[in-house]
Amino acid sequence: MGASMTNAVMKIERFEVGKFIIDIAVSFAPEKEVPSPRIGIIFNCSRGNRRLPMKVQFKDGKIFAEGKYDSSLIFYGFTPREIEVSFIFSDATDNGKEYQTGLKVNGIKKHPLHRFFILTPLERIKALAGVMLNIVALPCRMLPVHKNRISFFSNRTDAPTGNMKAVYNTLKDIENADIHLVCKKGGPKGELKVLLKFLYLYMTSKVVFVDDYYHLISYVKKKDKTKLIQLWHGCGAFKTFGFSRFHKSSVLEIYSANHRQYDYAIVSSPDICDFYAEAYGISSEKALALGSPRCDILSNEEYRNKKREEFFSEFPALKGKKLLLFAPTFRGKGNGDCYYPYEKFNADKVLETLGDEWGLVIKLHPYLNKKIKYSDKNKSRIADCANWDINDVLFSVDFLVTDYSSVIFEASLLEIPMAFLAFDLDEYIEKRDFYYDFRSFVPGPIVETDVQAAELAKSGNTDIETIKEFAKKSFGNTAGNACKNVKELTEKLLEE
C-alpha cells in the first residue's frame, strides 16, 4: 500500500511453449533493494483475465520468477484461442506494476478424459463427486430461477455473522424479495446435512451469497441466470489464500474448481481488487470495491453504546477497567484442521504484567475449539467472548493483541492501538505468506512474547496517526457505505 511503486527492468529469461505447457521465467532488476518482492503472471484473453503468483528467488543481483502453466486449464469453463502474457512486479508494499511483454500463446482444448487423468488423486475424487452431485441436482436444475429469490449459504456458524449478517439484514428491505438463509457450521460435513435444501435454492435463486469457501458450490455447476457473490468474512488483503498460494504448501492446483464460479467478489478497497481476483481465480473486473458490510456498524454510535452496555452487563467485574483484547488467528489448513500454540499466551502472566487496573478479553478464531487456560483467581478479570461477534467486542476494548488476524482492519476504524504477537513470523511467511511485507504493513509494534505485548499496552505509547492512515488505505471511501452499495448491486441483478 505504498505511495509509489518500485520501477524495475524486466527481462524474459525463458519462454518455451509446448502443445499445452507454458514454461516461462522472467527477471527484474529493481531501482532499489526489494527484500520481499512479489511477482505474478497475468493471462489475458477476450473473455477475461487471470493472475497467478510465480515462484521467486534471488540470483546474481536480480529477482527471478518462474512457473509452468497448462494453457488449457488457466480459464474456468472455456479455453480461449489466444492468450496474452504480462507480469506484475511489486515490492510487497503495493498492488504492483504491470509489465507488458507482447508474448502470446494459443489455447488448445483438451479432451475431458485427458483433463481428468492429469488431476491429482484428490482432485479426481472431487471431480467424480461433482458428477454425482450434478446428477442428484438434475431435478432441481429443471426448475425455473425465481427472479426475486436471494439465498445465503454459510458453513462458518449456525447463524449469520459478519458480512453475511449485515447484508442479510439490509436486503430484507427489498420489496417482494424472497430471501432464504442456510447456515450450518462444520465445513463440508455441515453442508451435506443441508444438501437437498442447498440444491433446491441454488438452482432456483437469482442471487446467491456466500461468506467463505462453500464446498458444494465447487462441485455443482451454477446456472447462467444465477449470480453468485462472494462476501468473504474478513476485510482488507492480508494473508494469502486460495490460488494466491500457488507454489506454496497446501496450494490449490491451477485447474481446481474452487472459487472459480463467482460472478462477483465484494472487497473493501480498490487497492486489493487484484489480490482477491488472484485468490479466487476470477477476472479482476469481477472484484468490486464496495466496502466491508460488517464494518458499517462501527460508525453507528447508538449501536456502539448498546453493545458496550451488553458487554459490561455480561462481564460486570470488568466495568471501569482498561481492557486488552487477545484475538489471534489459527495455524493449519482451515476449518477442522487447525490449531493455535496456546502455550504462547499465558493469561495469568499477562494480567500480572498489566496490573489490577486492567482486564483481559479473549476472542479466539471460530475454527479453534480449545480455550485459553487461566487460574481461578483471575476468572473475574477475564471475559471469554467465544459467542460474541468480534466487531461487537471491539467497542469495549482499549488495546488489541493479535498476530495475523484481519481484525486489524476493523480495529483501525475504531483507532484501537495494537501489537502483533508474531513469534513464528518467518515460519508463517514460509507456510502461508502475506500480500504485503508484514513488518512494514502492520500498524503497530511486533513482539515475540505475550509479556512484551502487555508491557506495550500498559505503557500507553501508541501511534494513532499510523492507525488512521492504515484505515484510510484499507477502506478508501467505502467505510460506512458497504451495505448500501451491496444492496444497490443486488437490486440491479434482480432486475436483469
Description:
The protein is an alpha/beta fold. The protein has 17 helices and 22 strands. β1 and β2 form a beta hairpin. α4 crosses α17, α10 packs parallel to α15 and α12 crosses α16. 41% of the residues are buried. The model has no long low-confidence stretch (mean pLDDT 92).
Poorly predicted runs = none
Radius of gyration: 23 Å
Shape: globular
How many beta strands in the DSSP annotation?
Answer: 22
Strand content: 25-35%
How does the helix and strand content classify structurally?
Answer: alpha/beta
Main β-sheet description: 6 strands, parallel
Strand order in the largest sheet: 10-9-11-12-13-14
Count of helical stretches: 17
Ends apart, CA distance between termini: 36 Å
Mean pLDDT: 92
Q: In percent, how helical is the residue content?
A: 25-40%
